[in-house]
Structure formats: C-alpha cells, structure tokens
Write a structure and sequence with these properties.
With 107 residues, the chain is mainly alpha-helical. It has a domain of 60 residues. Helix 1 packs parallel to helix 3. The longest helix has 32 residues. It is elongated, with a radius of gyration of 17 Å. The N and C termini lie far apart (49 Å).
Amino acid sequence: MGTLVHFPKLAELRARTDRDLVRILNADLERALVLASVAATSHSIFRSQAETMYMRAKTLLPQLSEVTARERAELEARLKELGMALDLAAGTAVSFQRSAFSDQLPA
C-alpha cells in the first residue's frame, strides 16, 4: 500500500520547487549585483560574497527543468551581467574563474 508512487504529485512538487528556486535565484542575483557594485577591490568581502552567489546560481541554473524559456533566459542574462560586474570589481586582474564554465551558458 505504501509502495505506490504518485507521479503527478511528484511532478507538482518539482514544479513548485523550481518556481521557488527561480525566486530565490532572482533575489540572490540582485543582491550579488549590488555587492559586486560596491566592491572596492578584488579582495573585497563584498566581491567574495557575490562570487559565492554567482557560483551557486551557475550550479543551480542547469538543474531547473520546470521553468519557462523566458525565465531561464532572464536568469542567464542576470548571471552574465553579474559575471561582468565581478570582472569590473576585479579591475585589471585576471577575469573571474567563470571562464572555465562559460561553455555551459548560451552566448
């Protein structure tokens, strides 16, 4: 009796989780953009926090399956914007490590 799996319920849960994750990622990316904009140097704690948020979003974005193409494109654009902001915060230093992962995002 307890072994019967309700796939529609699992699909509903996955869709709800992905919607929640989109909201969280949007908030994190917005916060990270602010942190990157106030980072005075490449060694700033603000930049470090923004980098952490960047890497988390970069990792989670490919895992989203129940999002619209528009939502995904918006998240990817914000992630790209954050990457550029991190590069600016680094000044003339070597670009942020995201170059190793750039093949995972569409151009």
